[in-house]
């Protein structure tokens, strides 16, 4: 049975309303886009939707109370909340360097880490 | 730190955000020896430190960075370039001597008042958020009503949450980003309310910050009343009619303890006004020549203090240029005055700079009044360019080559945005 899914393209401010028709896991048709980015986006969203992820963690002994961190690769959309909860368990002690790895192989993904997005010096 | 602020400077930069750092680097690039940044915060970098999401640097670095990463790259450069940086310092005034020397009055929490002399100044104070007062929302005056960017600072730097159940008025990008941010931190975001029939934020943010988390976006809807004595208890929201008035017969209540406002930004120009320089009533920033010089000789402006930008990359580019011109001014270079006025025409809200000179290439920054698709930009009778679309939320940037301006003999160049085909108009 053919089913339909709706997406809004994020490629540019036009925001084309995309329609993707599929039979199980097979895409039968994509429509509604004005440029190739739309078709590509709908396909990606249907097969393996992922999101960039950044948040903050507690830091002790620094100028600010929170340290900005990010995941170095996109996280599966359905695991974003789980990822946030895992990252928020971290508690970091200053000093920290920009790019310092805080969690290695995050969510069991090889070479995808949680890293610090800035340097924070120790302030006593 | 104030003891580093010594002697006479070539260029003093007011504000150490992305605009100020860019201007300082531009000034050093031009050969100016002594450059000073004054910033009121404990560290330079401005708003970037709290913008922890990614999306910065795509134009300038050709890679996607978070705000703090973008800030740190520039901060490192500022140190490398031997720019003096004095923080915790607020510039309260600037006066000009008969020989053109400027005295910058600085207030520092630790050291008190001081003045520093300089040949040229770059204004890069950025912008601030509009508050409840600017749109006069009826109701009581409880705590829990705050601008979205302030909430961002509270959450991302200070480490506490502004509330538990959040409503957001306005769909600007900061509001959308905060909807996601607070959801990730465990708050419940009850909804985003936008008075216009379209979102003011990027589509990407509507999808990834609201739809991903099932946060409703109510278009053509506004907050009609705020309830609560000490703390926000609920808000009344109502759909608006065509003239943007709330229709109370269809109003409903939303329970929340916090109302975030994402309703626009205002260039922060108290210092510019105190100097008596000419302002543009549309941008809310100074009028500037093609060297980004204000109406006061030797005083330049760039970044959000000049006009509110969409992307920090463009702030950087504009500021490097302002810094270069401020630096060469300090070294005695006096370029010929611009002889072409640039004026906004059909469907153009504003354009910056306000005048041009035929001697070099210019980058024009402008915004349209209303969406148009497809369309064309016409610059006097010099050039015409097709565009797939224009929307008010997205700045339009294009270049004008000097050979084109050489052919121009008038004194006023008008920019129009017109529909692509005669008589055919899309919205």
Word description of this protein:
The complex is a heterodimer of chains A (124) and B (427). In chain A, 26% of the residues are buried. Chain A is elongated and about 65 Å long. The mean pLDDT of chain A is 94. In chain A, strands 8-5-6-10-9 form a 5-stranded mixed beta sheet. Chain A has a 3-stranded antiparallel beta sheet with strand order 1-2-3, covered by helices on one side. Chain A folds into 2 domains: 3-47; 54-116, CPE0013-like fold (Roll). Chain A is an alpha+beta fold. Chain A is built from 2 helices and 10 strands, in the order βββαββββαβββ. In chain A, strand 2 and strand 3 form a beta hairpin. Helices cover 21% and strands 31% of the residues of chain B. In chain B, helix 4 (148-158) runs parallel beside helix 5. Chain B is globular. Chain B is an alpha/beta fold and 427 residues long. Chain B has 3 domains: 2-128 and 266-330, FAD/NAD(P)-binding domain (3-Layer(bba) Sandwich), CATH 3.50.50.60; 131-263, FAD/NAD(P)-binding domain (3-Layer(bba) Sandwich); 340-419, Immunoglobulin-like. Chain B contains 9 helices and 27 strands. The longest helix of chain B has 19 residues, at 312-330. In chain B, the strands form 7 sheets. In chain B, strands 1, 2, 5, 6, 7, 8 and 19 form a 7-stranded mixed beta sheet that branches. Chain B has a 5-stranded parallel beta sheet with strand order 10-17-11-12-13. Classes of the chains: A alpha+beta (124), B alpha/beta (427). The A-B interface holds A 7-10, 12-15, 51-52, 54-56, 58, 63-66, 68, 70, 77, 80-81, 84, 88, 98, 117-119 and B 42-43, 49, 52-54, 64, 66-69, 71-72, 155-160, 181, 184-185, 202-204, 206-208, 211-212, 373, 388-389, 391, 393-394.
């Amino acid at each position: 049975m053919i089913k339909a899914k709706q997406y809004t393209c994020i490629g540019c401010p036009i925001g084309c309303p995309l329609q993707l028709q599929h039979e199980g896991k097979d895409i039968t048709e994509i429509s509604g886009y004005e440029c190739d980015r739309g078709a590509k986006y709908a396909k990606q969203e249907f097969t393996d939707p992922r999101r960039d992820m950044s948040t903050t963690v507690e830091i002790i002994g620094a100028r600010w109370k929170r340290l900005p961190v990010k995941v170095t690769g996109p996280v599966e959309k359905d695991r974003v909340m789980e990822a946030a909860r895992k990252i928020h368990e971290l508690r970091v002690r200053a000093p920290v360097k920009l790019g310092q790895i805080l969690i290695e192989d995050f969510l069991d993904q090889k070479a995808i880490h949680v890293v610090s997005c800035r340097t924070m010096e120790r302030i006593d | 730190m104030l003891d580093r602020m010594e002697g006479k400077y070539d260029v003093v930069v007011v504000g150490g955000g992305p605009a100020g750092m860019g201007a300082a680097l531009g000034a050093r690039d031009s050969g100016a020896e002594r450059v000073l940044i004054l910033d009121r915060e404990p560290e330079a970098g401005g708003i970037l430190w709290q913008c922890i999401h990614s999306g910065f640097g795509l134009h300038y670095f050709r890679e996607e960075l978070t705000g703090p990463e973008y800030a740190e790259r520039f901060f490192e450069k500022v140190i490398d370039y031997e720019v003096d940086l004095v923080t915790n310092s607020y510039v309260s005034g600037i006066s000009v001597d008969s020989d053109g020397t400027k005295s910058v009055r600085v207030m520092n929490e630790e050291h008190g008042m001081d003045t520093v002399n300089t040949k040229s100044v770059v204004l890069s104070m950025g912008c601030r958020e509009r508050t409840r007062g600017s749109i006069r929302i009826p109701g009581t005056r409880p705590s829990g009503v705050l601008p979205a960017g302030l909430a961002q600072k509270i959450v991302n730097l200070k480490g506490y949450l502004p509330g538990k159940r959040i409503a957001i008025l306005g769909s600007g990008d900061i509001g959308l980003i905060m909807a996601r941010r607070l959801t990730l931190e465990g708050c419940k975001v009850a909804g985003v309310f936008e008075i216009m029939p379209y979102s003011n934020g990027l589509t990407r943010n509507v999808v990834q910050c609201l739809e991903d988390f099932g946060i409703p976006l109510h278009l053509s809807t506004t907050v009609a009343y705020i309830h609560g004595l000490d703390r926000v208890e609920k808000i009344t929201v109502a759909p608006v009619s065509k003239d943007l008035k709330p229709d109370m017969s269809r109003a409903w209540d939303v329970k929340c303890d916090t109302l975030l406002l994402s309703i626009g930004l205002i260039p922060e120009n108290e210092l510019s006004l105190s100097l008596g320089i000419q302002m543009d009533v549309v941008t809310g920033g100074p009028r500037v020549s093609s060297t980004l010089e204000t109406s006061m000789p030797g005083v330049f402006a760039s970044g959000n203090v000049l006009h509110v930008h969409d992307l920090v990359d463009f702030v950087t580019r504009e500021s490097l240029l302002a810094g270069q011109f401020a630096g060469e001014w300090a070294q005695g270079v006096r370029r010929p005055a611009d002889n072409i006025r640039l004026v906004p025409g059909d469907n153009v809200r504003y354009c910056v700079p306000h005048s041009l000179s035929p001697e070099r290439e210019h980058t024009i920054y402008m915004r349209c009044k209303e969406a148009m698709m497809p369309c064309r930009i016409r610059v006097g009778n010099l050039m015409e360019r097709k565009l797939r679309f224009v929307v008010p939320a997205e700045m339009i940037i294009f270049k004008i080559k000097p050979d084109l301006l050489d052919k121009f003999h008038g004194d006023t160049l008008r920019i129009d945005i017109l529909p692509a085909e005669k008589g055919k108009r899309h919205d």
